[in-house]
Amino acid sequence: MSGQWHMWNAGDPADRRAWVRLWEQSPMQHPFAHPDLCWLLRPHHGRLMAATMTVGSGHILYPFFLRDIDDAGPLRQDIISPYGYGGPLHWGLDSVEESAAQFWARFGGWADESGVVSEFVRFSLFGEELLPYPGPTRERQTNYVRDLDVTEEELWLGVESKVRSNVRRARKEGVRVVVDTRGEHLQDFLRIYHGTMERRDSVAWYRFDADFFSGLHAALPGRYAYVMAEHEGRIVSADLLLLSADAGYYFLGGTDRGSFSARPNDLVKFEAMSWLRHSGRSSYVLGGGVQPKDGLERYKRGFAPRGAVPFTTGERVFAPKAYESLVNAAKQQFATAGAAWEEADGFFPEYRRQVPADRLPSRLATTEV
Fold this sequence. Notes:
By secondary structure, the chain is α+β, with helices and mostly antiparallel strands. It folds into two domains: 4-141 and 312-364, Gcn5-related N-acetyltransferase (GNAT) (Aminopeptidase); 143-310, Gcn5-related N-acetyltransferase (GNAT) (Aminopeptidase). Helix content is 32%, strand content 27%. It is built from ten helices and 13 strands. It has helices at residues 13-25, 35-40, 96-113, 152-157, 161-172, 186-199, 210-219, 264-278, 295-301, 320-337; strands spanning 4-9, 46-55, 58-68, 77-80, 89-91, 116-122, 137-147, 176-180, 224-231, 234-243, 247-255, 283-287, 308-317. Strands 1, 2, 3, 4, 5, 6, 7, 8, 9, 10, 11, 12 and 13 form a 13-stranded mixed sheet that branches. Strand 2 and strand 3 (58-68) form a beta hairpin. Helix 5 (161-172) packs across helix 8 (264-278). The longest helix has 18 residues, at 96-113. It is globular and about 65 Å long. The two termini are 41 Å apart.
């Protein structure tokens, strides 16, 4: 059966409305596939698009950003999926393999006509909801997903002993947890989150302002939750969860430095799992670290020691000659600046590597995401 193919531009009001309708029909209602959340997370100069196909009563939805490639000549662009977990989602298809072949053939033709050089996809951790990908993939690092189809006792015994000890300590210290699904405690969250970002010296892209969170509330009503620890009348730790129909995703969070000894975030994460379980969701995606095997990854592993899942990316080149030319130009920029070019660090697409700021003339040293 031939599918009905569409390429939607979220900047077009009619396309955006069609996208939202399709998202609302999807059984997973994946937060990172909603156009309004994707828009809030857009990269520099990215145009938000979605390739869709309907086959009978089945559907495919693939959100992505289309980016111009600077100084690459006329009509040269590349693709990157939105921040978080994405890729081509599917549901209700009679034959996933046949539909995938048809979808990717149409997509490849569109990419050639549109001057797309390469594609970088951050895949969902739930492989059963993803369309088979026709290009190379790479396992980047380990993420952790907690299975919530358990009893309350199994949930408790399924975390590492140090987590149980920290939860007991938080409770003994009088820490209690509140769950806010309406954004009423946003100012408390902003205070904690911005303090955490400052302490960690995070890059500007992660320092979301109040308007970002107001936009998130408007985009996903009923699909977010602030899980917050209160101690001595003050919110001292908080995690923001994004919610699909069947899973919760840790998104952003932080803890006041002065409350570390009370271990409030261990209690926040444990109570988040319990709350998600009682809401009928079967998984909690904690994510991974900033770098493989770092302290943050080890901390998250404590809540799901048997829930290791590889975080995988898709990396495809549509125009090999153009790609090679762009990589050579980037290498020349590094050589001119006297900067080392690391061949094996896994960066993709290679031509978007940036010369380290300390190697650039001061007037050119900028940070872009």
